[in-house]
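Weekly modeling sync, notes
Attendees: S.R. (lead), two postdocs, one rotation student

Agenda item 3: backlog of single-chain predictions. S.R. asked that every request posted to the team notebook include the full sequence so nobody has to chase files. The rotation student volunteered to paste the first one in as an example of the format we agreed on. Action items at the bottom.

Example entry:
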Amino acid sequence: MKIRSALIVGASGLIGGYCLRAILDDPAYTEVTVLVRKPIPITHIKLKAIVTDFSDLEQVLAPVSARDIFCCLGTTINKSGSQKAFRKIDLDLVLSVAGIMKRRGAEQFLVISSMGAARDAKAFYSRTKGEMELDLRGIGYDCLRILRPSLLLGKRPEFRLGERIGGMLAPLITPLMLGKLKRYAPVQAESVAYFMVKVAKDEPSMGVHIYESDLLR
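Predicted structure, as returned to the notebook:
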C-alpha cells in the first residue's frame, strides 16, 4: 500500500467535512493537514489543523508537506456578498493553494468544481468555475482531478434556499431522471467526498481527469 499524506482546504464545509472523515478512516493516509477559519471539533493522531484567515498563504503553508491536495472550497454570491468576493474564494484562493503546494512538491490536486463549468458560460457562477478549471491546468500538476457535482444534498451549518428546496424535491424527481437526465439529478455530498478520496488512490494518475455528476453517486 502506497503511504500518502493529504492537505484539505475547506474541511469545515459540507464536502470537506466528509472528505476529512474518509481520509482519517483510510489506512493509506498517514497524516492529513486541514486549513480552517475556525477550530474544528475533531481530534485524531493523523490530523493537524491550522486555523487561518487565509491572508498569508505562503507563510501558513510553509511547514506543510502533502502529496495529495483536496480542495473543497466553495461559497455563494449571497454568502460572500458580491461577485468580487465570490471570485476571491472560488477562484483566487483555489489557485493560490494549488500554486503554493505545487512548488512544495505536491503531486496531485483534486478540486470540487460544478456541473456546467465553462469559461464561456453565461452564468457567472459556471463561468468562474470554468475559469478556475482552465487556470488549474496551467499550474502543471502531475495529476489534476476535477469533480463536477450537480446540486449537492446534505446538512450544511448555514441555510441555502436552493439546496433546501432541492433536498425536499430530490426523492420525487430523482427516480424520474433517467437516461441523459440522470446526470442532472441531485447528488449527496457524502458520496462526492468518498468518491474524491477513492479516486485519489487510483493508478496510474497522470494527466487531467474530469468526473461528471452521474459518476459521483
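Discussion: group reviewed the output briefly. Residues 4-159+188-212 form a domain with the Rossmann fold fold (CATH 3.40.50.720).
Action items: rotation student to repeat for the remaining queue; S.R. to check formatting next week.
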